[in-house]
Specification:
single chain; 203 residues; mainly alpha; rod-shaped
Amino acid sequence: MSNPKIFTFFMVVSAMLFIAVSYPAYAVESSPSNTKRLNILPNITKFSDIKDNLKNNFQNRIAKRCEIITNNIDNRINAYNNKKNAHLKRYENLKNLILKIITNLEEKNYDVTQLKSALSELEAKIIKYTADYEAFIEALKNTQNFACGESEGDFLNALEDAKTALQNVMQDTRDIHYYYKDVFKKVISDLREQNPLRSQDNL
């Protein structure tokens, strides 16, 4: 009799252990909240990947934009420097020409006081032109400080400062042009009215 009772007891205990072990697993598998978590995890991972890709693409676009703007500014600076050098060479040639005229007229006893005064004024205008051009180049270079990683407003403000500096340079160029055209031509025309030989005879 003891053997059947032991066997029966063993079977009951085994059944209870099976149920006890199986129930948590079943609970995990059948729990609605856990099911949702398992389903959501892949979506979270996918969204994170998309976010990283968008961030990388945005940073790449910013870097590319920065490179393009910086290169454009460098090209403009080189072009403006070439223009400045060309203008300065032309002005230097003009000064040398006027100096030769003054020397020749002095040798012929012409009164070149007004011509010398006009030349001094021209030299002052050329100095101002050179200084304003340097200020413009510096303002243009300054825009590069805001082309990358800065707000668009700061970049536009720096660009506006460069445009204002360029307007000063353009005004200097016009001043030099019209000063030579109006003042020097009049001075030279007045010199033609002189008669240095007659003046020398009167002395």
